[in-house]
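Quick start: what a row looks like.
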Amino acid sequence: MAFTWFILLITIAGTVVLSLAFHRRSFLGRLLHERIPDRPRRRLFVASLSFFLTFAGVRGVVYCIEHQIPPFHFIEVGGRHIHHLVIGIVILLLVGYCWLAEMGTGADDSSIFVSRLMSILYGAGAALTLDEFALWLNLRDVYWSREGRASIDAIILFGALLSVSAWGAPLFSPSGKKK
């Protein structure tokens, strides 16, 4: 259960930190709103940060588990190991449902906090799921083996897609606006 609580803690802390850091009145918030003016692209930016931070955190936790560094251990229910991709899939289903119900999409007057929360949860859920992509392909745990490299490749490809979508030209252009 420590792993589950750690992921939940990272998500909550990430939501708070990113919300505070990118609040419109802060320096980073003004920079973000100036360089990435449209809300969907800002959601992609927040999701990509969450994606990479969650991936790094999960890899660190699994390393600690494998090297028996307390308090971390695998989640087991009834003697069955629950992989973190299960948690990721549940998070992605939750975010998908919320976005279908147009919560946090910006389509109405939903709060910026809900929008950022959904983006952070999406990034975290995608990272948890894709971190075990090799498990999908091999139907067995190959996390630290050579075959596990497929998970790293999936993370790099999807992370690049999120990053290019969010950080591309708008962040690095002089005004952040299209000419």
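That is the whole record. The first strand starts at residue 75 and ends at 77. The mean pLDDT is 80.
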